# Entry
Amino acid sequence: MFQDGKNMELISVYYATLCGIVINDRRKRNGEMKRYPRTEKYDLSWIEKNWMGPNPLWLSEDLCENLDLRPGMKVLDLGCGKGVTSVFLAKEYGVTVFANDLWISATDNQRRFEEAGVADKVFAINANAHTLPYAEGFFDAALSIDSYHYFGASESYFVDVFSKLVKPGGQLGVVVPGFVREYEKGYPDTLEELWFPELLTLHSNKWWRTLWEKTGLCEITSCYDIEDSKAIWRPWADWSVENFEKEFGDDGGGGDYDVRFLEADTNDEITLIVLTAIKK
# Structure
């Protein structure tokens, strides 16, 4: 009954899926976080030297599982920070990356790209997310990892800016922090003592999906909460206790803010969200 090639292919997919479910169930029972094999190739001290939030390579790897990136593609990395995500994209997928950030010097980022051996594939740009210098339809993919919520939570940004960056059939993808659902006052009761207005950009995956989908400009290809989101966030939070103010100065929240934020969330309502789409 399994001699037909199509049947064999379906059986292979079935067993691969079944094995994945079994492995995930075993991992969860043992309290283990999801593994990111591509990220494991990178020196943790290099990541920690350059990160500006929860491990950006873990987030990038999760996002890219939902994309079809191929060598030679032009990819925008919007809000790239110190460029570790741009290095990852170039090395892992062979794409040409335009590493765009407002706050980090393009000169400093280009030096990092040279040190990482990707200066022929990654180009540092210093530009505001609302006044980008790129032609419409220039990119094969536009991505934003842990920064889109700072500028993209308005009704108009996706329509007027982000969707225009890629050609028809181009890929769009973001990772943003958020909550597992929406709240009448914008945040869960457990976080009331730690709240400030800028956090009103934190939403649920359903909210983000609707924001893009209702424009009619794209087809959503994935939208979900990342497994083990708080476990992914925690190493950055712990690092920040000792290092945040030395690296970034005092932002008023204190270096232990993220630890307090995560620990106050006793109902596990904080999450990290992946959203991807194809432009129509």
User: Anything to note?
Assistant: The CA atoms of residues 83 and 112 lie 8 Å apart. The chain has ten helices and seven strands.
